[in-house]
Amino acid sequence: MDPPVVSVVVPTRGRAAYLEVTLDSLLAQRTGIAHEILVVDDGDGGPTADAVRARRAVRYLPHGPARGLNAARNTGVRESAAPLIAFVDDDVLVPPGWLAALVEGADRDLDAEAFGGPIRARFEGRPPRGCGREQPPITTLDLGEQDREVDFVWGANFAVRRTAVDRVGPFDESIELPHGDEEEWLERLHAAGGRVVYLAGAGLDHRRTAEDARLRPLARAAYARGRGARASDSRRGRAPSLAAELRVLAGCGWHAVRRACLQGLIMGAHSAGRVVEALRAR
């Protein structure tokens, strides 16, 4: 076999049903580009191992006890072989041309060391009613229809050159809460003179099943992201005051009531997570 041009690493923990869709979409890529697919199982085993082993073209890397997303990324870097390493979340659907668009984009800009692409919300059930003023209640990214240099891209659709990891170091495994994990590495890359490029053609879909598109699971996930966002801001010395966080929380509540906007409750859950994390740190 030809050596891989790109290694696709999928960190996962306890979401075998989502992972199966992600892997099937990766296995359906329409490209002759040599590549490998690795799943880093951060602490589940069982159904996750079964899902991967049923797809023989995918390599399974068990972590044992959970060590976190960045630890899984570092394992993927160590165990992969290609000069370009692409990370995708375990809850995405990858269009058939995604891999080719990623590799072609990286080949067009050989001086860039990290890449990202569009992340589109895909709800497989009707999400809670919104008023049209809010962002989708899951992570998305849309920076336009043209490739361009950017400060940040998000980890659900994220690629790095191996030489960049060798130069600036591995991902920070001390980051426990789910926010800012890839941003910290990108900040180090920028500090070392590295460039990040957004590849408009290398987009994918960020999925939520009908069950997970309901108010309660979306609010629970938003709360966790809020805690992580506050911890990330504190780590960087950018966290607003507790009074400011409380004002935002009150504003989310007022928005939800005034506009009968259920997605305002999801925004409120995110804000509540920030407040709780601020109180825990006092």
Shape: globular
Q: Could you estimate the helical fraction of the residues in percent? A: 40-55%
Total beta strand runs:
11
Determine Rg (CA atoms, Å).
19 Å
Mean pLDDT: 94
| Main sheet characteristics | 8 strands, mixed
Task: List unreliable stretches of 5+ residues.
Answer: none
Decide which structural class fits the backbone.
Answer: alpha/beta
Enumerate the strands of the largest sheet in spatial order, edge to edge or round the barrel. Answer: 3-2-1-4-9-6-10-8
Q: How far do the termini sit from each other?
A: 56 Å
Give your account of this protein's structure.
The chain is an alpha/beta fold and 282 residues long. Helix content is 41%, strand content 18%. The strands form two sheets. An eight-stranded mixed beta sheet has the order 3-2-1-4-9-6-10-8, with helices on both faces. Helix 1 (16-27) links the parallel strand 1 and strand 2 (35-41). It is globular. The termini are far apart. The relative contact order is 0.14. The model has no long low-confidence stretch (mean pLDDT 94).
